[in-house]
Amino acid sequence: MMDYQSIYKAWCESPALNEEGRAELAAIAADQKAIEYRFGAELEFGTAGMRGIIGYGTNMMNVYTVRRATQGLAEYIKSLGEEAMRRGVVISYDTRRKSDEFARAAAEVLAANGIVAYLFDDVHPVPMLSYSVRKLETVAGIMITASHNPKEYNGYKVYGEDGAQMSPEATAIVVGYIEKIADYFAVKGESNGYIKPVPDSVDKSYYKKISKLTLSPKAVKAVGKDLKLVYTPVHGSGYIPVTTILKKLKINVTVVPEQVKKDAEFSTVEVPNPEFKETLSMGIALAQKIDADVVFGTDPDSDRLGVAIKDSKGEFVALSGNQVGILLLDYILTRLREEHQLPANGVVVKSFVTTGMARPICEDFGVQLVDVPVGFKFIGEKIKEYEASGEHTFIFGFEESCGYLRGTEGSRDKDAVVASMLCAEMVCYYTYKKQSVYGRLMEIYAKYGYVLDKNVSIKFDGLNAMKEMNALVDSLKVKPVEKFDIYNVVAVRDYSKPVRRLADGSEQPIDIPTTNAVYYELENGSFICVRPSGTEPKLKIYYSVRAKDEEAAAKAYEKMKSAFEAFLK
């Protein structure tokens, strides 16, 4: 295998390299660190697809890495036969730098392989791409996006025929084909008759389908037109779909005008991630100005929803993804029960790092709760499994990172369009009942006990960042621990096995797909979990603290956090 310097030289000298790439690589000729980062590895294609910094090199997001990945996918589709090739692939993209260029490149590679490529003519979010895979009955889908990552990033996500992110098994086969392609410049694309536009009827069908997921039409009719809702698409792909569905329900919405524009620089925010209150700051400022009731924000590919509501003092507070999930879970189950539509075999699915508050709520409603690894594809796999077996009726799935999905009418991935619709009608429902959403959240805490959920990210840098993070997590699996300050450790879950080790040394198997994470069960139902991010060089630490009230939880969290950080060293 060539060293990174030789690969860099080969790229610079290749007549197939475009002028932009040639100039960019020439500019780093004296920067050994930059050359090593760009060419010392290949951009990894995992179960979440590819994600990386935009630029030229084998470890970057560029037209050549996109073509190579697409050729791997094309080889997989060709191995499935002519029918799969005719069914084809649907491709969408968001507002990030080069998203449209990468989407077109992917379509042309598929077309050159005789595979039908349906290409959206403008930005469309993740949930609409996921839905279109099933609506058009394609064999796969491609979404060009880096979700909530900083502006320097872009990515490439692949979906299976069920509309969920491609399974680990199928991904492994695609990766096998990709790895056989040594020459990045050998993959060519063609603009031919195999590239087709996505019919307009797909959008209309999506809105019609998700409209069936509404739960409180009476309340919406009564107060929706008077509701003051502020929405920001944060320069992303959510603008048209979110405003379209809210207008269909006749819910009043005011959009942050400065953040409607498709801006690949996301110039009005530091990071286009609605999990952060700062990302919602312009929406909150507008809401204060017009005395609005609620603020929504979606990320560039509109699969995550951030929400801010008024507290008991009338001040806007940004809810965490866990808090929005708790509110939606409680609201959905309440309304289904009130309408006598709560299925006897109902199930809610969440990632295992998502709030411990979900369990007592589900138990109270007589609904089963299932934990899966982090990544909405695992929730999608459960939907597919339940549809095939009939064992359960899927009601709701959510992750602490602001990802929510109700029902199976629309997407099979997290859907901020549906989540916006449900949150808006939830506000209408409580307004109709002369209650506030914040008041309902306090009632939930009073009924089930207070839980404080926090997560901390530790950033890793350099070419070996992912390897170093995984090694750190691996070291924790064999590191003994009895307590974290005031909390005794009841059991340790090693999700890479997957096994649960009790304090007495005995082990129990866990029925869950394997993933690299260590989860510490604490004695009162609290937990700490640590895992490497699968999409960016960050070590994620999740804390879920049960306590009698918010003040006690905050104090316990600080003690737990200090003890765990000392344990990591």
UniProtKB/TrEMBL annotation:
Domain Alpha-D-phosphohexomutase alpha/beta/alpha: 44-182, 221-312, 321-443
Alphabetical UniProt keywords: Isomerase, Magnesium, Metal-binding, Phosphoprotein
Descriptive protein name: phosphoglucomutase (alpha-D-glucose-1,6-bisphosphate-dependent)
Catalytic activity: alpha-D-glucose 1-phosphate = alpha-D-glucose 6-phosphate
One Pfam family named in its UniProt record: PGM_PMM_III
TM regions (residue ranges): none
The species this protein was found in: Candidatus Borkfalkia faecavium
Xref: PROSITE patterns: PGM_PMM
Gene Ontology terms describing biological process: carbohydrate metabolic process; purine ribonucleoside salvage
GO molecular function, a single term: phosphopentomutase activity
Residue ranges of every copy of the Alpha-D-phosphohexomutase C-terminal domain listed in the record: 498-553
Family matches, as Gene3D superfamilies: Alpha-D-Glucose-1,6-Bisphosphate, subunit A, domain 3, Alpha-D-phosphohexomutase, C-terminal domain
EC number: 5.4.2.2
Cofactor(s) named in the record: Mg(2+)
EC primary class: isomerase
Keyword Thylakoid attributed: no
InterPro entries per record: A-D-PHexomutase_a/b/a-I (IPR005844), A-D-PHexomutase_a/b/a-I/II/III (IPR016055), A-D-PHexomutase_a/b/a-II (IPR005845), A-D-PHexomutase_a/b/a-III (IPR005846), A-D-PHexomutase_C (IPR005843), A-D-PHexomutase_C_sf (IPR036900), A-D-PHexomutase_CS (IPR016066)
Record-stated family: Belongs to the phosphohexose mutase family.
